[in-house]
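May I ask you to review the protein record following this short note?
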Amino acid sequence: MPEEIVLFGPIWNCVKACIGDGKIAVTKEIYDEMLHITGSVGQSIKDHKAELLLEVGDPSWDFSTYIEHYNRMRKDHEEWIAEYSFKSPAKTICLPDLTAIALGKTLSLPVVSMESSAVGSPKHKRIPDICHLENVLHYSFNDFLDVEGMLSE
């Protein structure tokens, strides 16, 4: 959904509002990936770093529980993590993805991703699969837009 297409303007305005309102939280790893986004959405990400980014060591949130979740998840899901299993990150979970799931679990918030499930694969697990195993709600981008009222009539 290119930002420059007028039809998608209201959707991206909703996303920018969610960013500015502090409705979206990310880890440093995910924030760094988001910095590659261009246009007004990318600028909104840069302008609202304080609202988006939760850094380890910041006393305003429970980062110690986040670290506990992340370290446990690295062990519990090691067989599916690309960096440990030498599998393709396009097919299975990778460590930066795991940070988002650990953050969602810590904050009791859903994780939003564009990934689909690996659908019962014995070799691969993707973000929705690990969210399911960790009892963390996973939203697709469309689910997120629906929750925010962008797809309602």
User: Anything to note?
Assistant: The chain has a mean pLDDT of 90.
